[in-house]
Write a structure and sequence with these properties.
The structure is a homotetramer. Helices cover 33% and strands 18% of the residues of chain A. By secondary structure, the first copy, chain A, is of the alpha/beta class. Chain A folds into two domains: 2-64, Alpha-Beta Plaits; 84-337, TIM Barrel. In chain A, helix 3 packs parallel to helix 4 (145-158) and helix 6 packs across helix 7. Chains A and B meet through helix 2 and helix 7 of A and helix 2 and helix 7 of B.
């Protein structure tokens, strides 16, 4: 770390910083510039956060972090890519993994119809919300445990592993029982209490990027999971909030490519939430795969206009079949007939 | 609500929408324009979210909400301003309420020194974090229950009511026991499971605006609390994320003024988080009060450069005294001496 | 357009709006809802901007635009896709058009070396800045007319058409003389005086999206060109400003797909500016093509670390060759040898 | 400046950077850390932009600027605050300067009525647009020279100095002839050709912040004016683009306070554009003054609902009188009568 002194810092202020750097377990290295002094804090075992606090000391302009603050998620630590195995489906192993299903589980019939259809079109896993985080308390909040049972049935009929969101620490156990992968929704990305609980579960975790999270904050949220003991973490870019209102969010595909550079964890993209527009799902799915995404999360509903949530960004069954064909992911006709 | 048909919608598509609007419990009112047809869904008892889903129906361009989606927080429902009483201190009653204290409770000594000092300078309540939401798992995470006990002691010595954050559903009971007002942090604004639990507590709730929450989303988060039964809600603007990096966040004071227009709930401003820079706390405190804020949340630490969190945006004790003087909130010298 | 009256609008206020709508050349269509009245302004020949101003009238909550405000750029007006012919190279005709070259023209040697190399690697056109918009007045501002002459020489040696930016109305004539396509930079997207002049030139215009322009604002900027008489307009997405700082901008590829839906104009993507990171150019180039971009704008420099501008987001000659290969755009080895 | 080498930089790569730093006219100062090497470029006379380009060199992670890139606008260079004299009215001298008038000059009658009214209410200067930058080419574009003549007449009748926008380099001379202060609109903040021309005029320049400009970019735009010879520059914060749509822009008052810290130039705030809502003009005007703004820019129209532009964010004459009273800026009744 580097402490950048202000141009009118006094010698006493500079000495004070040098002393504090040493107190915090680092060596201090002073560089005397033309306009100002900068002081490096050198070493790997000091207390970094105390150096950061020096920004509050007199005569200090800025404290600049030189190293990335994340460790376990970093490719510096681990070159080999992590492959997450979700009941036999491998995420990050090279094939594009498509996870499809309704935003909300609304009924057994709706879910089973969707599950069989997405399976026939080539999906690798089934998604469906049992617990729904909704902006308004007056909107449909999910069927809860009943939905988990429908998901289990759909999974046993189709063989597709299940991904579903856990919103509450209180639901971690029950969701762990039913889900093959447990999703942390975007709005909970920095719900650290929930992350700490999920660090201890036996199932992989799908960690969505928060709508205003930087890549650094996202990776640090994943770091909570790894540091707590759960190394089966899959990231998912689902769009960030920007000034643009024509799309629901701005799908940040460069973040997908950048995370692949910085981290060994696999990364998915969610073009349904990322755009909020059904017509943009196919082009953005192709783009995500081209950018290096390990898979896709796609909302599919038998009748989007009757969906209890997210209809406008859901494909219908035919639309999903066409998407899979355009991605080259649909099974050959013969295979389907067989 | 208004369903805006696309310019090439067919008569069948239009008829379908009319029928669906009726099914959802509304009257359909068709307006035939020069270029396109728009259809109003009229009535107050229909199922609104099903109308929204019609954006997914063929021939539909957009579904436009006409009414505000929030009810109980709205001034349309309740003209009189809510005054929240926090153990005798009234927020929203006209006086500026200043809540001051350290970001994190670090030790009994640090807290007591701060509490006595901010009391002497005229603060109305004491803040201090026991459970800390930190971006990195390697940063100081708070002293937990021990900190709650220190807060209680500081409160009993100074008479200042206590505000502290509750991060986890699992901690709601213990925090309720110690705190006079329970804070929902910005990153948990849409942690709906936590909100639902806090709707049932006996203490007032301080709801911070999320760093990427629109005013509408913020008020709907408050609606969760009111709809669940807790009407003692205080809002707090603490800055939003924007492209500007010179300040930690962008303090949106227009949101303070706008919320006062839309809602009967009191609103505070937090210039410490809002700017991240100690030198901006005083001008932005004055600006917040001028914009109509009912009070301020200010981070104060006896030695900011040794703070375990947020030092650069904390005032020291002398700085806080000067702030209170510049706000005209410091007690007269005589009063202090007495 | 729809005028949304407030819930407590008086009958007089409603009558006043009806009257004003008629004065502005529309029919007024009143829809009486449960909570409020909305009034449609129907017709195609009224004065729309005067209806918008009614938001300022007493009793009015909002004025909602129903139709898109752009006309000539819209696919509603013109279904067939525009193909822009830049001295024989066709943009929007189906093939991916790659425009490559240095950010700034720095010398004859630098430009000629780059031009021959990008030609050999399969580029369709040459880009290079003669006039440079620089954030700081102390940075290199471009070689001006001298650079235009170097570009002309490079073009005559390689046969590649030339794209270069025009920053100033005063330079329109000289740039028109040398360039095959004239670029409007992102910071000038809403320099309407410049757009009005470029509406009258004989050359195609490349219109970059402003860093904070919505898709709607961008298309309306293009509308200035078409309305003024220049129909040869190529759009270019180059990233928008968001809170994310890990990349220089956020490349909004959904905007590329959306513009293809809304407009008949061709659209390029610029992953150099869009990301600011050399390592992200290749994945984002592939993603842009997959999202439907008609071509790419790529910064290439023989020695990026000595570039006078934008080195970190420039490929070197070898890197560009590899990009073209990975896009399947590099000429076959035999062809090159021939 | 500091060059931050990557953790796996080779000794050759490090040596190369040291050599390049020396070539660019700096001394190289190497700091060997635990994980990586950082190299300071020390000196005041080297070529900084060439050091920045080293981010493109092999083995380099980042190049970090330590000093602020602006000079002439900086308080480091000039401690004394600049006072800009606009025909006798002093901006930055301590008194709040209120500049009021219509968004667009629409007619002689409209302007004269407004001018006399705002003068009577205590305004110090008159604003009014003759050339209007409009998002759509189909909106009212201003009366041009005719409007300048009306402004001149209004000024001679009321004694109020005139502020009006210049959009085009071609209009600089004519606007200079009529205006007392020449405004650069937000969308032209980085129209560097225009800035270079305005650096040479005899009149003060009012430089609005671009809707996506950082404080640093804004000050560097001002640096263009000062470096070119015009030291009479007044800055104006007018709101930035964010995800929030409830207000037209987000008025960034912390930027006002921060600019006062960084620069000696005076700063105004424009709550009309900053919020887009008439009801927010008064609270945000008070807040701006409390934050340290040297004055305000307020849109006023005799009949906002008939305004050809920006009606919803304009006060009517009575509303402006009330604003001035609430700011304590209205002349005493006696004085008005006299």
């Amino acid at each position: 770390m580097i402490v950048n002194m202000s141009t009118n810092a006094t010698p006493d202020e500079i000495d004070h910083i040098i002393e504090r750097i040493k107190e915090c377990g680092f060596q201090a290295h002073v560089v005397q510039g033309a306009e100002r002094t900068i002081i490096g804090a050198i070493g790997s075992s000091g207390r970094r956060s105390e150096i950061e606090a020096l920004r509050a000391a007199p005569g200090v302009d800025e404290v600049i972090q030189i190293s990335h603050p994340f460790k376990l998620v970093s490719r510096q630590l681990r070159q080999a890519r992590t492959v997450v195995d979700v009941r036999g489906k491998k995420i990050g192993a090279g094939d594009v993994v498509v996870i499809a299903g309704p935003c909300s589980v609304e009924s057994e019939a709706q879910l089973l119809e969707t599950a069989h259809a997405v399976k026939a079109s080539g999906a690798s896993m089934l998604r469906g919300g049992a617990y729904k985080p909704r902006t308004s308390p007056y909107d449909f909040q999910g069927l809860g445990v009943e939905a988990l049972r429908f998901l289990q049935k759909a999974s046993s009929e189709t063989g597709l592993p299940i991904v579903t969101e856990v919103m509450s620490e209180a639901d971690v156990e029950i969701v762990e029982e039913y889900a093959d992968m447990m999703q942390v929704g975007a709005r909970n990305m920095q719900n650290f209490s929930l992350l700490r609980k999920l660090a201890l579960v036996s199932k992989p975790v799908l960690l969505k990027r928060g709508p205003s999270a930087t890549v650094k904050e996202w990776l640090l949220a994943a770091e909570y999971l790894l540091a707590g003991g759960n190394t089966n973490v899959v990231l998912c870019e689902r769009g960030i909030k920007t000034f643009e209102t024509a799309t629901r969010n701005t799908l940040d595909l460069a973040a997908v490519a950048l995370v692949k550079e910085l981290s060994h964890l696999p990364v998915l993209a969610d073009p349904s939430h990322g755009t909020g527009m059904r017509s943009l799902i196919t082009p953005m799915s192709k783009a995500a795969v081209a950018a290096g995404a390990d898979g896709l999360l796609i909302e599919v509903h038998p009748c989007p206009e009757r969906a209890l949530s997210d209809g406008p960004q859901s494909l219908d069954l035919q639309g999903f079949q066409e998407l899979m064909e355009s991605l080259g992911q649909a099974p050959a006709r013969e295979a389907k007939a067989a």
